[in-house]
Amino acid sequence: MIYAGIPEENILIRPDLKEAVLEAKRIGLAANIMATYTCLSPIVTIVSKEAKKVSQLISSMISGK
Q1: CA angle in degrees (0–180, nearest 5) for 32-30-1
Q2: What is the C-alpha separation between 8 and 64, in angstroms, rounded?
Q3: What are the tens digits of pLDDT across the range 27-36?
Q4: How far apart are CA 20 and CA 35, in angstroms?
Q5: What DSSP character marks residue 15?
Q6: pTM
Q7: What is the greatest pairwise CA distance in the chain?
Q8: Residue 41 and residue 57: Cα distance in Å, rounded?
Q9: What is the per-residue pLDDT across 5-19, written as a single tens digit (0 to 9) for each?
Q10: Closest CA to 31 of 10, 57, 8
Q11: Is pLDDT above 80 for 56?
């Protein structure tokens, strides 16, 4: 990432996958999660669950329930 010209202060390293996803969600900015091949399946699961929660929240807000 540094070699790609991304300033070091803009790079956050989180060893816990769920913590990384939740922090990116909390910040509310676009985030790139760089994971090893081994971590891809767990990351997809975590992100999918979080996306479903957001979708349900938006649906409930629209329907007024």
Answers
A1: 35
A2: 43
A3: 876 777 777 8
A4: 10
A5: S
A6: 0.62
A7: 49
A8: 25
A9: 889 888 888 888 888
A10: 10
A11: yes
Tell me, what amino acid is at 6? I
Phi-psi region of 28 (alpha: psi -120 to 50; beta: other; left: phi over 0): left
Q: Does 64 have pLDDT greater than 80?
A: no
Are 46 and 21 in contact by the 8 Å Cβ rule? The answer is yes
What is the rounded CA–CA span in Å between residue 50 and residue 44? 10
Tokens (6 digits) for 34 = 């760089």
Residue 39 near residue 17, CB atoms below 8 Å: yes
Q: What CA–CA distance (Å, rounded) separates 59 from 36?
A: 33
DSSP per position, 21-55 = HHHHHHHTS-------HHHHHHHHHHHHHHHHHHH
- Assigned token pair, 50: 């979080």
